[in-house]
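User: quick one, sequence for these tokens?
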């Protein structure tokens, strides 16, 4: 894995680029509280056929942590700034949870930059604003101790009980990602999620779209994916045997669904 830093007008981002230089581009965008490392399995798979770009969302991992709050248009604009800096005119985009909402924003506001859009374990509005704002305030108050508390509680939100029992090392690795996130970056992204509501906008998306849902996801449910499918013309849907981080819990099914979509 070759990591580098790309500096744009929007800030500096830790990125990883793999795959043939002349292959079609595919961007992976991480969820709240994770890093580009969550896509290791997908990068290994899809870098055979695509030029894969992974990046840490602002405030996460090795990317810059500007003072918040952030907005969804900033998260989407960061992707466009990265594409511009790397000379990528069009790309397929695959985002999970917060990354999926970022993808929806791109589908609404920059469809000409997308060849395809895969939105996993997400929704046009994720959760309630007061819950996100309360979490942001808690993390700012408690700092790294607050991030440690979130890491301790994250498995119940991210994975099924069966996966937690069967794959403890994978679960611990995921907990390490969230524990290492800068509190300000995490809080500022919570504020972006609090105010992001694309429910009235996604009907305008005319990019080929795949919606991936986890059958056991308590955060962004199958019903959320069904609502997006009803709103986005021609959208396809795949329901996987997983909870919220379906690419980690059901990687083979995730990769198969994404590969079939990209091939079409």
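Assistant:
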């Amino acid at each position: 894995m070759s990591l580098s830093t790309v500096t744009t007008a929007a800030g500096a981002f830790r990125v990883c680029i793999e795959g043939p230089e002349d292959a079609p581009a595919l961007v992976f965008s991480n969820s709240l509280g994770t890093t580009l490392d969550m896509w290791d399995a997908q990068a290994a798979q899809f870098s055979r056929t695509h030029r894969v770009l992974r990046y840490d969302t602002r405030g996460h991992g090795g990317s810059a942590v500007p003072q918040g709050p952030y907005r969804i248009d900033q998260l989407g604009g960061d992707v466009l700034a990265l594409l511009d800096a790397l000379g990528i005119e069009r790309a397929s985009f695959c985002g999970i949870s917060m990354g999926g909402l970022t993808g929806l924003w791109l589908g609404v506001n920059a469809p000409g930059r997308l060849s395809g859009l895969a939105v996993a374990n997400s929704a046009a509005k994720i959760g309630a604003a007061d819950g996100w704002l309360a979490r942001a305030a808690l993390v700012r108050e408690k700092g790294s101790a607050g991030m440690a508390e979130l890491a301790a509680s994250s498995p119940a939100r991210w994975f099924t009980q069966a996966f937690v029992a069967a794959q403890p090392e994978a679960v611990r690795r995921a907990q390490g990602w969230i524990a290492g996130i800068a509190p300000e970056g995490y809080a500022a992204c919570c504020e972006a999620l609090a105010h992001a509501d694309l429910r009235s906008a996604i009907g305008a998306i005319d990019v080929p779209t795949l919606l991936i849902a986890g059958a056991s996801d308590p955060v962004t449910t199958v019903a959320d994916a069904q609502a997006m499918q009803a709103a986005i013309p021609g959208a396809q849907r795949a329901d996987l045997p997983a909870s919220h981080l379906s690419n980690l819990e059901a990687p083979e099914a995730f990769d198969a669904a994404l590969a079939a979509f990209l091939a079409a």
